[in-house]
């Protein structure tokens, strides 16, 4: 590959799938966004089978393929003779580069920019650590690049024209898509809720509230462990849940796990979204709807600090009572308590307006891929 100058850089993004979909979810999105900015991108992935549900066009048996303008390569190929590192090498989430790569990188006349792309956090220290260098053997410098929620961080992944496309997705489009793509008929007056979470969220208090509530609730649950938990809680089989199960005011449906781009449509089609991890959490913010975050659990409850840090920035500007209600709800959801849907529901109109404002605020900032490109260019000059 020949470098075409600083306009088009050659990027190597390394992704190791630890668990679930978040590692590849973030890397796949970023790789496509870099490619959309005219960059030449190789995405090295150690587990193509975990990647496939997010990108159905991917053939997990093929060690090398081009998808959405990105060269997707099975990780072991990186050790092959003659593979030369590009201008920018990203190790996502501190994954360790293939053993031969630091030496291959050091051997290049112009040393590649080596970036460790970190996990997303709203904690204040992130802005102080963003962009810091850590010298490595062979004259290489490794930089810590933190995504984040303000201009002192690396920003968030965001496709061009995302907010325009989302704003055009009205109720008619939503109900049509739900019916034709997911086979779910949504009553016009139903509150539509999507639920993507880790295995054991405290479902029972929510189900009780939805079943006994005045407003019809349509609950849509992508395939995964929660489907089994929900089926058990409702006393039905997973197969019955796929057909739709009604109890009182609640109708619950499991829905297929859709491609990553289509998942946006599910979020946009709902009035409230339960999301988790990192990427779906960010997508729910771009969806500009009220949300609840099931955060990835960490040792010693370190994740709760992250949760509180996000709540502090996200809820700024809301009345104290609304802040308390949302905070209580999220903490109960994450700690196995009893999330109070009835209390939250009172605030939904205000939270919906707030979510729009938050998305517009984030939209005013530069996105992660654009920040990475300008960071890399500055280091290479
Ligand atoms: O799957 P996650 O929990 O991922 C993670 C991992 O646990 C990871 O190890 C951890 O470090 C990280 O979170 C913080 O949640 P996440 O990040 O939301 O990723 C899910 C991806 O799946 C996201 O890209 C959206 C996508 N998705 C679809 O493509 N289709 C679907 O139907 C659904 C429900 C999700």
Automatic annotation (TrEMBL):
Pfam family, one: EarP
Transmembrane residue ranges: none
Alphabetized UniProt keyword annotations: Glycosyltransferase, Transferase
Catalysed conversion reaction: dTDP-beta-L-rhamnose + L-arginyl-[protein] = N(omega)-(alpha-L-rhamnosyl)-L-arginyl-[protein] + dTDP + H(+)
Keyword Transferase listed: yes
Record function comment: Protein-arginine rhamnosyltransferase that catalyzes the transfer of a single rhamnose to elongation factor P (EF-P) on 'Lys-32', a modification required for EF-P-dependent rescue of polyproline stalled ribosomes.
NCBIfam families per the UniProt record, alphabetical: efp_Arg_rhamno
Protein family (similarity comment): Belongs to the glycosyltransferase 104 family.
Protein name: Protein-arginine rhamnosyltransferase
Organism per entry: Chitiniphilus shinanonensis
